[in-house]
Every structure is written in structure tokens, then in C-alpha cells.
Write a structure and sequence with these properties.
The complex is a heterodimer of chains A (253) and B (173). Chain A is of the alpha+beta class and 253 residues long. In chain A, a hairpin with a 2-residue loop joins strand 1 and strand 2. Chain B folds into two domains: 64 residues, no CATH class; 70 residues, no CATH class. In chain B, helix 1 runs antiparallel to helix 3. The longest helix of chain B is centred in the middle third of the chain and has 22 residues. Classes of the chains: A alpha+beta (253), B mainly alpha (173). At the A-B interface, helix 2 of A face helix 4 of B.
């Protein structure tokens, strides 16, 4: 017999309530969520000081291209503010680009889709394979980073990356965010806002997205919002033929 | 430190020497090495003697005449706003801060360990100048003060933010 304490339906309702309070979405039906617009989902918990990133976790992003508003650059602005990307060089091609908007056009019917493109945080990152100094690295929780202490600025990783996700810093910098060190002579790319993720926050782009097109979370946790969505809706890894198993997935492309 | 100063002084003394006719520094050294001093003309032997006397003079003379009190190199000016709150005693910090930071940076970046006691940002928050808010910029700023005195180049600040409580604005496209 179901007592009030072990009633599974009651637990489900309680969990849905917690979802409303903590994650900013309402379960309409299993697998179908009503997202609160403009509200970021605080998907994670801050890791305790002194503990290392866990290999049991794999951070990932799910980007719904159908929700990505044409002409909107909120994610790019938020990324630049968060990571202190402020330099404007005379040759615009040399500006750092951690995240950019891409427009896809279907030539047959002219349908346009916009999506943000950044480091895809591959499980098998080609940038790490080619790095001659070991500066390009993948953290235990799947975040691909550049160790600027050992980066010599050779830019092999930029050539190896199929997503053009990396930039080289051409000029001396002074306006860095204290939590995001970056400087001349090193290659850099999206860090998945590793400094925020370690504090239990979501990346700046995810937080800034006005349409809730981006979902951040642990791909390895079947209970996470992102894992549930990936399990229930068709998603794409860009250039999946390369078998890099990216942590960033797209929906609706 | 004393050795370093003596060496640099010796280098400074040696550099403006005009070598005697027909002799370069290399050929002079070779001659000395091969023990061919006797075959050299008297002018050269005299010159070698002068050089040796100069070297002896430097070795004997006390180092503080070149640096330190009343010397050409200004002593570091260290002002600490919150003394006694450092992660280790001053003696240990002076000797080992670079090692502490080096190990911390690898643990934080590569393993993802946060909240380490030896954190560069924590250093800045305490040691940034009250006047300029930075650890760089002048002789009275904490990092620059000592590092210019010992002539050790600072690479940290090519990438790290030397100002305390700095808020990056970012680019508005």
C-alpha cells in the first residue's frame, strides 16, 4: 500500500516542484518541459575547495537552433564581458573569437538557421593530439583548455580544430578578468566558463540567452536536464563523421 | 646575491677594454690558455697585468658600494596593508613564493582544484598598492619593487590581472 511517504506519484510531483524552484522549468508531461524564459538554470553544485574535477562528470551544452533568435548576439556579448575579451585590433581577423554566430541556409528552400559555434569540448580533441608542449589539455570533467603557462603559441591546435574554435592573442592585454587570465602569444578558446562552473554557476552564454536555447549540464548524469533532453529529442554533433564525441550538441539543424 | 653582483660588476669592467693591436678577446684567451704568455709582446703582458689587478680590486672591494645603501640600485620599498595575514611567514614567502605559485597553478588549471591557499588572485587582493590598486606600475608596488631590485623578469602579468578587484568590461560589438 502507498503511504504518503512512499507514494511514487507524490515523489514525482515533489521532484517537479523542486524543478520549478531550482531549475526554472515545469514538467508538462514526461520529457516535455515548459522553460521559464530568460531564467538561467542553475544546473550544478559548487565543487568543494581542495577537490579535483571529477572524471565521473562530463560537462556539455545542448543548443536548440530553433530557439536561437536571428541577429541576437547576447551570448557573444556575455562571453566577452565575462572573459574580458575587449581588444579591437586594426585587422579584425586577428580579434579573439571565443564564440560566434553562424547562419545556415538551406539552398533548396532558403530556410535560415542561426546557431552559436564555439569550442565543442570533444572527448577526443584534435587540438590536444597535436599540441607539441602538452599545453592543450582536456580536464577530467571533459572541459578542453589551454594551459597558457606551457603554450608556446605555435598554433597547431588552431589548424587541427575542425570548428575554427581557437584564437591567437596578437597584442598585449591589460583588461583581463582576474579569474580569466589571457595574454599575448597564447592560443585560447571557450573554456565553458570553467571558473563559473567550478563555483556551481552556468556558463555566461547560457545564462544570458533570452530564449533559453542553451542548456548546460552533466551529460553523464541521467537525471540532469541536458541528459534527459538528449535522450528524448534528436540532437546532432557537428561533423560527427570525425568521431570526436563533442560535448556541445545541437538540436534542430 | 653577492655573487651575482660581483659577476655583473666584473662584466661591466671588462666590456669597455680595447684589445691591443692584432689581438681579439678570443686570441688573447687562447694565448692565456696555451701558456704562451711568454711569447707575447711586452705591451700585451702589461695589459694582462692591469686586467688582473682590476679583477683583484673588484674581488676585495665590498659589494655594497655598487648596490644597497646609497648605491645606484634603489632598495625595494615594501608596504603591506594587512601584515601578518600571509599564507606563510615572510622568510618562506621571499624564498619560495614562486614554487608555491607554480604548483598551485598546475593543480588549479590541470586538476581543477579551487580554493588553494597559494592563489595569485589572493596575493593581489592583499598586496596591491593602496594608492594605485595594483602590484605593478612603480617602485613602490609590491611585485615590481623587489623584482626590479633583483632584476628578475615578471611573466605572470602578461596574462594575469595585476589590479585588485578589477572588473573586465568586455567588447560591445
Amino acid at each position: 500500500m502507498n503511504t504518503p511517504d512512499n507514494n511514487p506519484r507524490r515523489k514525482f510531483i515533489a521532484a517537479a516542484g523542486a524543478g520549478v524552484a531550482g531549475l526554472g522549468f515545469t514538467v508538462i508531461a514526461p520529457g516535455l518541459h515548459l522553460m521559464a524564459v530568460g531564467e538561467a538554470s542553475a544546473a550544478t553544485e559548487a565543487r568543494k575547495a581542495g577537490t579535483a574535477a571529477s572524471p565521473a562528470v562530463r560537462w556539455g551544452l545542448l543548443i536548440d537552433a530553433n530557439k536561437c533568435a536571428p541577429g541576437c548576439t547576447k551570448c557573444i556579448d556575455a562571453c566577452h564581458t565575462e572573459n574580458g575579451v575587449s581588444e579591437k585590433l586594426p585587422d579584425a581577423r586577428q580579434n579573439a573569437q571565443w564564440i560566434r554566430k553562424i547562419e545556415l541556409v538551406d539552398r533548396r528552400d532558403g530556410r535560415k538557421t542561426e546557431l552559436p559555434m564555439m569550442c565543442q569540448h570533444c572527448a577526443e580533441p584534435p587540438c590536444v593530439d597535436v599540441c607539441p608542449t602538452g599545453a592543450s589539455m582536456k580536464r577530467a570533467d571533459g572541459i578542453v583548455l589551454v594551459d597558457r603557462h606551457t603554450c608556446i603559441g605555435c598554433r597547431y591546435c588552431m589548424m587541427a580544430c575542425p570548428y575554427k574554435a581557437r584564437s591567437f592573442v596578437h597584442a598585449p592585454l591589460t583588461e583581463q578578468n582576474p579569474e580569466v587570465p589571457r595574454g599575448q602569444g597564447c592560443v585560447e578558446s571557450c573554456t565553458l566558463c570553467v571558473h563559473r562552473v567550478d563555483k556551481g554557476q552556468t556558463p555566461a552564454c547560457v545564462e544570458s540567452c533570452p530564449t533559453g536555447a542553451m542548456t548546460f549540464g552533466d551529460l553523464n548524469d541521467p537525471a540532469s536536464d541536458i541528459a534527459k533532453r538528449i535522450a528524448s529529442v534528436p540532437t546532432t554533433q557537428v561533423r560527427s563523421d570525425l568521431r570526436l564525441n563533442q560535448g556541445v550538441r545541437y538540436q534542430g539543424i | 646575491m653577492k655573487l651575482l653582483r660581483d659577476q655583473s660588476a666584473a662584466l661591466r669592467t671588462r666590456s669597455p677594454v680595447a684589445y691591443p693591436a692584432g689581438m681579439s678577446r678570443g686570441s688573447l684567451r687562447r694565448a692565456l690558455h696555451l701558456g704562451l704568455l711568454a711569447t707575447l709582446p711586452e705591451r700585451v703582458i702589461g695589459f694582462v697585468k692591469i686586467v688582473l689587478i682590476l679583477f683583484a680590486g673588484i674581488a676585495v672591494s665590498p659589494a655594497p658600494t655598487l648596490a644597497g645603501e646609497g648605491g645606484r640600485t634603489a632598495k625595494p620599498v615594501i608596504t603591506i596593508a594587512n601584515p601578518g595575514k600571509c599564507v606563510a611567514p615572510a622568510e618562506e614567502m621571499r624564498r619560495n613564493h614562486m614554487e608555491m605559485l607554480k604548483h598551485q597553478r598546475d593543480r588549479t588549471l590541470r586538476a581543477g582544484i579551487r580554493g588553494e591557499p597559494a592563489s595569485l588572485n589572493a596575493c593581489i587582493e592583499c598586496h596591491a598598492s593602496q594608492k594605485t590598486g595594483s602590484v605593478l606600475g612603480g617602485k613602490e608596488n609590491f611585485c615590481e619593487s623587489c623584482h626590479s631590485y633583483v632584476a628578475v623578469k615578471l611573466d605572470c602579468w602578461d596574462c594575469h590581472q595585476p589590479k585588485a578587484k578589477f572588473k573586465a568590461a568586455g567588447l560591445k560589438p
